[in-house]
Every structure is written in structure tokens, then in C-alpha cells.
Amino acid sequence: MTETNEHRLPTDVVPRAYRLTLEPDLEKFTFNGEVAIDLDVRQATREIVLHAAELEIQSASLGEVRMDAARERATIVAQEPLKPGPVTVTIRFTGTLNDKMRGFYRSTYTRPDGSKGVMATTQFESTSARRAFPCFDEPALKATFDVTLVVPKALTAISNMPVVLDETAEGGRRRVRYAKSPVMPTYLLAFIVGEFESIEAKTKDGVQVRVFSTPGRVELCRFALETAVRGLEFFGGYYGIPYKKSISKCDLIAVPDFEYGAMENWGAITFRETAIFVDPKKSSVPQRRRVAEVVLHELAHQWFGNLVSPEWWSFLWLNESFATFMAYKAEHALFPEWRVWEEYLAAITSAGKSLDSLRSSHPVEVIVRDPNEVDQIFDAISYNKGGSVLWMLEQSMGEEPFRKGVAKYLESHSYGNAGTDDLWGAMGGEIPKMMDGWTRRVGWPVVHARREGGSLKLKQERFFLDGPSEDPTVWDIPVASLSASGRATSRFSSREGAMPAPAGWVKLNAGQSGFYLVNYDDAGWKELAASVAALPAADRFGLQEDAYSLLRAGYLSVAAYLTLAGSFGSEENHHVMSGIAGGLGALADIFHGEPAALKVEEFGRKLVAPIVGRIGWDEKEGEGHERLLLRSTVLGAAVSFSEPGAVAEAKRRFQDPGALTPNIRSTVFFAAARHGEDSALDALIALYEKADLPEVKVQLLRSMGAFRREAPLRRAIAYALSDKVRLQDGMFAFASAPMEAKPVVWSLFKEHFATIDQRYGKSGLIGHFVSSAAAGIPSESHAADVEAFFKSHPVPYATEKLKQTLEGIRARAKFRAKNAAALAQYFK
Q1: Which of 273, 298, 527, 571 is catalytic?
Q2: Which of 413, 597, 653, 682 could be disulfide-bonded to 418 (CB atoms 3.0-4.6 Å)?
Q3: E strand segments, 349-472
């Protein structure tokens, strides 16, 4: 499915090797560079076309340079025609260490003594290597890299490969040269220069693993180091290809200013601090689990993405879906007590289903023509849906056959490029036919199950959030069923079909590993509601999640959904409870302003109050992760549903923030804003400015957006967009506003749009601002306002997010209009 178009470079000249020297100036925020590129001329030409952006090119050895800033290209017009064969071009250039978190950029930090420091670091995926040096900035144009960095004597310099020479250069600087890299794409290159401390360990087969942070922070990386060592050992065994076959060291570097969560640069992985720091005393359980997941995700990429790279950005999903799935697989092996597959359902599969319920969704494998579109598909389809259908495939074909297929794919394409068909080919059998429907089509199915005697009659159709349609798509669905009699499996690949079913309750999609939802007949729903306690946690989660989605799409009545929700009053699994509370909270938001919305909140209070009473506010010695997370979930729900006792206790505890335990800290901060006085904002800001842990700073920013009144919310948004807050974190204050404050948030977004656009307009982060600020109000008039605003204030890097946001607004408005009377009737 390779796309040949005007956005791709000509292939008559391609790179074989780069020899790159860079000299950053951390005082002037500039850099000088020279790159010698060994080329293969495949077809006689006088032009060498490569990428360059935001660079000044002083000279090129073969001829004149012509710049095309709009297309981010440089064309070297040779003095003499270039004949087929090898040739080398040497280019001298200068650039700026920007503050945009892409390319070769600068990041600031605070030293232990309070003084400020600056580092230089990189973020090249997907198309920003061209901002650091002239190069062939496409994933298929792989080459080797010899990197030399000329840096101040006192600073640490890190790149993908081990150091082979460190010598004194002119002016008291050092020249640090690194070993030749494996063949790899430009987006995986990295170099980081700054003041660092490090800790290190080795894997059983001798790979040196180091973690770097700014001074005074390195002990916060201890858990990440331990996880990385164990993760490399796991992946090497699973894939059958040791990491050290490619590189002998693996560095993890904490970067204070970082757009994404982390980046898988081969041998020099960079992280946002919130994705790598764990304080044994101050960090919450979710933070520890997030760090493990992110570290393992990036390590999985060292094989999927690095050893084998996508041929073009259309195959981005091969990188991200596999890293998403394999991170949880490794996490399950390393931390079996965490029950991470339940989290996978709640955090990964649910997000993929949510986005794929929209008509504005896209296939897992997207046809990408313009590389500038790539940032918009780093989303819940490429990561979450793709990862979920891989889990479904593994459960369908078996873990060992799946592992062997993955290993064969990696071995066959090592140091090369590949696409989707290459993966399915390695899996063999009917896999290509089955999986094409899941990766190359948009959407996902709902299976309707109706009992007729000893059988379940099945019918499938595409699921849309805004209701049924005549979409003819049919998927090849692996169907596992669970009943009191046991478990059974079958395949369902036609519009209609049937399967045998024992008497009593039957739950389809057993284990919830299938990427589809199930709608039962009335009797089926009643039987399952009465048998909730007999279901495993994953199936309880799936049952309530399916019910809410079916309610939103008009397949299930308000009464049926609330009856099912009410059957979870004895629930003790935090994912299931979070799903129930989230569904009720979403209903209350959609119907905000209607009297019945208050009844939904009351329903939620009554559901969670007994669990709060059983579990209490204070942790008990020896409690496992599940209990700690359940407490956080139900207390957060109680505060959101305005349960008086929970609100009062949270506000009381906010008076002594230093005594808060990590797992209830965010709930207390949130309560202080949502249910407190305007003065609570000053307290939250004071805590933010004293906090030394990025996790806590993010929790505080999220809480600042939770005020109901305009005055503190206005101040909170202004603060989030000030230089007191790192660029990457400004969006958090927009995301947590209660429904009554959503109009204010939208108004403030428009008021501050010039600043937001200037800072984030050419970044993937702009989409988060769009969805957070615009999504809340369920009315057609609001959708029209959003549409009109962005027509006159375009956001080219968030066009897909905008379509999805508008569709979501209209779906909620349609649902509200259709169900307001039924909700009022239920609570009569």
C-alpha cells in the first residue's frame, strides 16, 4: 500500500551513511553543523533533493543549494551530472535551538540550588530531523549514522550509540564521537547535551542500562531503571532477538520540556519527567503503573519500529499498536499481581472503541500522503484500537503461534522496512483475510444476540454512537461465550448466524478480548443483571461498558441501563466501578440543567456511598494495588456526585496538604476546587509552585480547571498559559471543568486563542486544547458556534480532532433530545 505522491522525495538519489558533527551553543541557543552523506545515485541526475527546515545552509560540496521553505526541502544542483553509483555530499549549516519541543531544541530546568539551567535535546518523530540537519527525512530511507558532538567541557553528551572517542577540542570544549549506528531512519536519531546525573545497571546478557536526569533528581528514576532492565530481558526472550544484537547500551533520559510522553530513539530513549519519575513515598499507584507502561512501551519499540521500521507513515500502527500491546504483555509478566489486562480493557480498548464509534474515525492503517498529517493519527485508533485487535488476534490464534509469527516477522525484516501485509504473512493461514477487516476498514461491530430455544441468533452491524445505520460492513469476529456451563468459542463472519447456547445466562465476548460489543434481548439483559456476581471482573467491566455504549446509540433504554448499573452496588473492582461511575457522570453532564440530572447524581451517590463506608479514607497496612485504586475511584466518584460527607472530608483534609497520602491526593485537590471557595485557587497555586514532583504539579493543574465559578476559572486558565507552567502542561487546566463551567471554558479558549495558536498551533498538542475546550456543551447551537469559530480560526494540525469533537457534540445533543423524557419518567 505504498503511496507514491508529490509529498515524498525522489528516489533517484538515496542515502547510505551520514557523518554528522554538531556544536550547540547553550547560551546563544544556536548550533553549527556539518554533515557528509554517502549517497547511492540510482539514476543519472543533476539534482539531490533532501529535507531541510529552519536551517541556514552555508555550503554544499557538489554545487548550488536552492531552498524551498514551504516544502521544507533543499535541492543541491550539481555542477556536473551525477552518474549512477556512490557519491558523497558535504553540507555546512547553522540552526536555532528552538523552544517548540521539536527538532533540536532547548529545555530549561532548576538546579538544586535554585539556579536555572538549559539543555539541548531532540524530538524528531515524525518529520523534525530536518530541523537539526539536512537529511532524507522519510522512514524508508534508512542509513547508518556516525555522530560527533562538540560540547562544553562540563556537560554530558548522549546519543544513540556508545562513546568511542572523547577528546579536548578548541576553546576548552570536548569532541565526543559515537560508534556507527545500525541502519535506521532519521526520526530515531537523538542527541542530548546538558548537566546530568545517572544511575545504571546491566541485563543478564551484559547490556548497559543507564537513566539520566537533571541534577538532584536521579533517585526518582530508580524504578524506571529496574523496570528497563527486566523489560529488555523479557523482550529479548519473547522476540528471540537479543537487544544487544543491535546496540550494547540502552539509555533513558528525563527531559523537563517534552511534547509527548516518551520517544523510542534507538539506544537513547527520551521521556517527559511525569513518565519516568517515581518517588517511593510521594508517588501514587497509578503513577508507578504509568511509568512501567511507558518504559516498556518504548522498549518494545526497540524491536517494533527500530529494528523493523514502517515503510511509510501509513504503517504507523505497526509501531504504536504493537508497542501498546507488548508493553502490557511485558507488564503482566513483570508485575502479575497488577492484573494489567483489566487495565488494558479500561484504558486502551475503551478509548479505541470510543473514537471508532464516530463517523469521523479512520482505519487503523491510514493512507498518509502528506507527512504533515502524521501527527493527527497518533491517536486512539493507531495506538488503542490497533493494540486491541492484536490482543483479540492473540487470544484467537493462541499465545505461542502468535509469538512465533511476531518473531518470524522481526527476523525476516530486521534492519529493513515493512508493512501490514508483511506482518500478516508471517502469521500465516487465514490471518490476512481475517485481519484486513479490522485494520483497513473504519469502525467496529455490535453483535445482537437473541435467544431462540437452545440457540442464540446473532446479527452484526457497524456500531455508530449516533445510532443504527445501513452500513453493510461485516467483520470476521472471534466469538467466545461464557455461561454457568463453561466457556465456548466460535467464529462469526456473516451478517446473521446462530450458535448453541445453554439455558440461563450467557455472556458473549468472554474475557472481553474481542473488539466488538454485544446487545442482548430483554431477557438476556435481565439474566445478566441478576448474575453480575458470577462474572469475572473483565466480563463485568465489559457488560457495563457495552450497556452504556448501547444506551448512547439508542439500542438500550434509559431504564434498562440504570437497572443494570444499580446491580453493581457490591462491586469491589476499581475498573468496573470507575466505568459505572463514569457512565452515570456522563449522563448527568449530558442532561445538565434538567431536574433529572440531579437524580442521576443522587443515584450515583447511593451506589458509591456503601463502598466508601466499607473502604474508608485511610490506607491500611498490606493493602494491594486493587484496594488502593478502588478507594481512589470511589472517593473521586463520591466527590464528583457531591456526596456531602465525602466533600466535607476532602475539604477538611485539604487544610493539611502535607499529610495527604499519594493515592487520594488528586481527589482532595479536585474537591477543593469543585466544592471550595474562590480562595482555594490561591492555595492550589501555592502548592503548585512549591511542588517538586511533576506528577503532583499535573494533579494540581487539573484541579485548577475544576472551579464552577467564572472568576477563579478565568484566573486558573490565565495561570496555566503563563510562563509559570511548562508549555507541555498548559492544556491540563482546560480538561477538568464541570459541566456548568463548560461555557466559560469555551469562552476563555476563544479569548486566549491567539496565545494558544502561537504556542501549539503547529504541534499535536493543539488537538487536546480543541477537544478539551469545545467538547462539553451538548447542543446544536454550540456545535454551530464551534464550527464558525474554527472556520475563521483554522487549526490545520487538529482538523481530524475538530471533526471528531463536532460529531461528539452533536451525538450528545441528539441523545439528550431523544431521552430527556425517558430519564424524567424513570425518576418519577
Answers
A1: 298
A2: 413
A3: 416-418, 445-452, 455-462
